[in-house]
Write a structure and sequence with these properties.
The protein is an alpha+beta fold. 74% of the residues lie in helices and 7% in strands. It has 24 helices and seven strands. The longest helix is centred in the middle third of the chain and has 106 residues.
């Protein structure tokens, strides 16, 4: 869709017409293209372009060219051309005050754009429909359409559409008497339009902000924003916008009782409305000027302008304007003592008011009758359609039964296969768990560890240290019992695992005579009695640090075990200051190459199995620690466990 056409139609939505005047040279060029084009589709596009150029300066010409475009598009079945033509025609009817007709045409345009899957144009139509519903007082309908448009604009990352939407929401906030909220959205829209250098819409937002300040009683602020809007519209030669902004300025001066300035601006607006042959706009301006004269007790001048407004209103059938005029004329006649004329004007006012009410009632009844007939016709069509579909469905049902039975049989076979496969997997997983637990148990109760522990106890006995030997023997017995008890469960309380680990480390410290020290740090938020972890899991990693990390180490070996509670897991860290895994010394690295800790391998295999059982991503990560000279300074094992109750 051409850029200028998009801007024209989107601007309707914010209830502030701001269209540019057609350049004579552009129109002449388009007319030449139109005369030299043979294809109906191309002609339809050119007619729409000309209509867009004429829209602001000569609306009637714009409407005539859209009619030509529609004929050409219908003749060639050109959906895109019809969609654009209906959009332009809807905008023309909006300007003319035929809001219901405009709504119908926008809905047609939306249907065509939907058929074309043109998301940007669909959003534009939703915006336009929302603006019209707002004009007709349907706040809920307006919001619904604006929200639909907003979703499309967000998906398209359309800054211009988003700016239009903010402006529209500002209009709704003003309608609901929320001026501060309205200003907030207007500020956002103004920022977008300024970045886009979209002066027509920028002027529209400035005008709306001026109106908000007028509503709040901040008349200097209102004049400031309206003057900015006026300056932009003068540069754009936007006659419709100029007339509207001049009327806005006139209204501000009316509120501050600066009647001469108010009259001056309304008269300028009247001249523009007259040039555009805008009957409704002329009548409104004439009434405003007459009111200004009446407030200054200039009755003759007021009567003159009211009479001019009345002539236009009667010619064009503007009953609301006639009612307003007769009401004021009755008041003026009463003030001047002409009670007969006042009574006559009041009777005319009453007659027109009753006519408006009756017309509204007739329209409502007509609408109700039409809706009833449409619903009746629609129900009849639905009955016929349902009858046809019922016969068709009965014919298809027999075939569908066989297909359904076939699908059901296949699904039953598939479900059975899945159940059998799952049971097989569970059995295999259970066997693996048993095997790993047995291997883990063998590793923890290995003869070498027991022999060394008994030797340490025997040595203490020979030395005559009964207290030490008795304590070690008690710890060894408790450790064996706890290992056997814990091996019977898949998971145990964290405290039981830590108690087992402390007994093991105490025995190792006794064996190596103060060459090893350890610390266990537990997160204070971690309930070690309630939460569980897989049994016999931490000790093999600690053993690996002592057996391999402290081998050939000079100085005291240190081990730190840390458990940290996270959102749905426990983060485990086992850190030692041993020789590390990558010690450059050939003699010290050689044993690591020949022997890998069986306990660590078993624990890693158990963690992999836990991944599949609990659907978690439990990975063991070995971190090589370095000192300030970038030399090996130990190993840190990191892994996370699922939080079990």
């Amino acid at each position: 869709m051409p850029k200028i056409l998009k801007n024209i139609i989107l601007s309707i939505l914010v209830l502030s017409a701001c269209f540019t005047t057609a350049s004579a040279s552009v129109v002449d060029s388009l007319l030449i293209v139109l005369s030299n084009t043979g294809m109906d589709e191309k002609k339809a596009d050119v007619c729409n372009e000309i209509a867009a150029q004429y829209y602001s300066s000569e609306p009637q010409k714009s409407f005539e060219y859209t009619k030509k475009a529609i004929k050409l598009a219908e003749k060639s079945g050109y959906t895109a051309g019809l969609a654009e033509s209906y959009n332009l025609q809807a905008s023309y009817h909006y300007l003319s005050g035929n809001f219901n007709e405009a709504l119908t045409l926008y809905s047609k345009s939306l249907q065509f754009f939907s058929d074309l899957s043109d998301s940007a144009s669909m959003a534009m139509c939703y915006n336009n429909i929302g603006g019209l519903k707002l004009k007709l007082g349907d706040i809920t309908g307006a919001l619904t359409n604006f929200i639909t448009a907003a979703k499309i604009y967000e998906a398209l990352s359309d800054a211009e559409g988003s700016a239009i939407l903010y402006n529209n929401i500002g209009v709704i906030c003003r309608k609901q008497e929320l001026p501060d909220e309205a200003l907030k959205y207007y500020d956002k829209a103004l920022l977008y339009f300024s970045r886009l250098s979209d002066n027509p819409n920028k002027a529209s937002v400035l005008h709306n902000m001026g109106s908000i300040f007028h509503d709040k009683g901040d008349f200097p602020g209102a004049l400031e924003y309206l003057q900015q809007a006026l300056d932009i519209r003068i540069l754009l030669d936007d006659k419709i916008g100029l007339a509207k902004t001049m009327q806005g300025i006139g209204t501000v001066y009316l509120s501050t009782n600066e009647y001469p300035k108010a009259i001056e601006n309304f008269k300028k607006a009247l001249d523009i409305r007259t040039e555009l042959k805008d009957i409704s706009g002329q009548s409104h301006c004439l009434n405003q000027i007459a009111v200004l004269y009446a407030r200054q007790n200039l009755w003759n001048e007021a009567r003159t302008f009211f009479s001019r407004s009345l002539d236009l209103s009667m010619k064009s059938g503007l009953l609301e304007n006639q009612k307003f005029t007769y009401s004021w004329l009755a008041d003026i006649d009463s003030i001047q003592g002409d009670y007969y004329a006042a009574l006559k004007n009041y009777e005319l006012y009453k007659e027109i008011n009753d006519s408006i009410i009756n017309t509204q009632k007739i329209n409502e009844l007509t609408k109700i009758r039409k809706n009833f007939e449409d619903e009746k016709k629609e129900k009849q069509q639905q009955i016929e359609i349902l009858s046809y579909e019922n016969r068709l469905n009965q014919a298809r049902l027999k075939n569908h039964v066989y297909i359904f039975l076939l699908i059901l049989t296949c699904m039953a076979i598939a479900v059975l296969a899945i159940i059998l496969a799952y049971k097989k997997y569970k059995r295999k997983s259970g066997q693996i768990i048993i095997e790993l637990k047995q291997e883990n148990l063998k590793q923890q109760i290995n003869p070498h560890f027991i022999c060394n522990s008994l030797n340490s106890i025997q040595s203490a006995i020979y030395r005559g240290n009964k207290t030490e030997s008795s304590a070690c023997l008690t710890k060894l017995a408790r450790l064996m019992r706890m290992i056997l008890e814990n091996s019977q469960s898949k998971s145990i309380p964290i405290q039981d695992e830590l108690d087992t680990l402390k007994l093991y480390l105490d025995l190792m410290c006794s064996r190596f005579k103060n060459k090893i020290e350890y610390s266990i740090v537990v997160d204070e938020n971690l309930d070690t009695l309630t939460y569980k972890i897989p049994s016999l899991l931490l000790q093999p990693f600690v053993e690996n640090s002592i057996v391999h990390g402290f081998r050939n180490k000079r100085g005291k070996g240190k081990i730190k075990i840390e458990l940290v509670l996270e959102e749905n897991s426990i983060s485990c860290h086992i850190e030692d200051n041993g020789i590390g895994r990558n010690k450059p010394d050939e003699e010290k690295i050689k044993p690591l190459q020949k022997h890998r800790s069986l306990g660590s391998r078993i624990s890693e295999d158990r963690l992999k199995l836990l991944n599949s059982l609990y659907g978690k991503n439990i990975n063991v990560h070995f971190e090589d620690l370095k000192d300030s000279y970038n030399k090996p300074a130990g190993t840190r094992v990191n892994f996370q466990l699922p939080l079990l109750n």
